[in-house]
Automatic annotation (TrEMBL):
NCBIfam families named among the record's database cross-references: PRK11914.1 (NF008882)
Upper lineage: Bacteria, Bacillati, Actinomycetota, Actinomycetes, Kitasatosporales
SUPFAM superfamilies recorded: NAD kinase/diacylglycerol kinase-like (SSF111331)
GO molecular function: ATP-dependent diacylglycerol kinase activity
Pfam families tied to this protein: DAGK_cat, YegS_C
Protein name: Diacylglycerol kinase
């Protein structure tokens, strides 16, 4: 493995934390004996192209500095390759970092973890979700949660959990359950009126909302959480429980496990790793061991 490491930086992540996080992360890696190159693109397409070029040129690791969106962009460059992914989590949600047990908003500590992982004889492999040609690491959200995500992404402040709490309250006023058609693996089509369907490779989204609390990153399966036709009052009571994962006990909530899922619903957009993946219908499959990661 080459000793040159690429820091893949989103300078605007976390209200500007990304720009400041690269230096302490790079210092930790250099102190461990690695050469560090910083990569910043002119927009997502240019950044991804540069990241793919770095991977193709044999960089020792691609380390995303930012939030889940930046980590998700980095996944598009490293998935299916031998190049490991590191995450310096300084964004709003940081759910992939949480799932991996990485430090959050502590770039020096995260850089140290990446350096130690690179020097260890074993680098962890985890599953990824794939929709068409796009990969995701955490949760594919659709329904009420994707609309909350959409609103939260448009809000310049506040940050973290409070942003999604406020977005949830705002969306409650107009939301109604929608008719879904769901197919798990090769099973029959399930028709259900649902508030949301969340497909979890990881367990959380939105800054620690454990919507798929039982999801495991390396078991080859998604955890699929279906929240049924809740009233606004019930949803207001149930949805905050996602931070502890206790919503899974509610009678309106069902959980399935599958390696592939197709979901269809009218006027619903799917979001994964905090980014829009397009309108439903979408089909996602879990790809075992799709990426190597720098984690404890």
């Amino acid at each position: 493995m080459t000793s040159e490491i690429t820091l893949f930086v989103n300078p605007t992540a976390g209200g500007g934390r990304g720009a400041h996080a690269a230096q302490p992360a790079a210092s930790a890696l250099r102190a461990a004996g690695f050469s560090v190159r910083t990569l910043v693109g002119n927009g997502p397409d240019d950044a991804l192209q540069r990241a793919r070029e770095a991977v193709g040129a044999g960089t020792g690791a691609l380390i995303a500095v930012g939030g889940d969106g930046m980590a998700g962009l980095a996944l598009q460059a490293v998935a299916g390759t031998r190049t490991p992914l590191g995450v310096i989590a300084v964004g709003t949600g940081n759910d992939l970092a949480r799932a991996l047990g990485l430090p959050v908003r502590d770039p020096e500590a995260a850089g140290t973890v990446a350096a130690e992982a690179l020097k260890s004889p074993r680098i962890r492999q985890i599953d990824l979700g794939r929709v068409g040609e796009r990969w995701f690491g955490t949760v594919l959200a659709s329904g009420f949660d994707s609309r909350v995500n959409d609103r939260g992404n448009r809000m310049p402040w506040p940050s973290g959990r409070l942003k999604y709490d406020l977005a949830m309250i705002a969306e409650l006023a107009a939301f109604k359950p929608v008719p879904y058609r769901i197919r798990l693996d090769d099973g029959p089509v399930l028709e259900v009126d649902a508030t949301l369907v969340a497909v979890g490779n990881g367990s959380s989204y939105g800054g620690g909302m454990r919507i798929c609390a039982g999801a495991v990153l390396d078991d080859g399966l998604f955890d699929v959480t279906v929240v049924g036709d809740c009233s606004r009052t019930t949803l207001l009571k149930v949805f905050p429980r996602v931070y502890q994962g206790t919503h899974l006990d509610h009678p309106k909530v069902t959980v399935h496990r599958a390696a592939r899922i197709s979901i269809e619903a009218p006027d619903v957009t799917g979001y994964a790793d905090g980014e829009p993946f397009g309108p439903l219908p979408l089909t996602a499959r879990c790809v075992p061991g799709a990426v190597r990661v720098l984690a404890p």
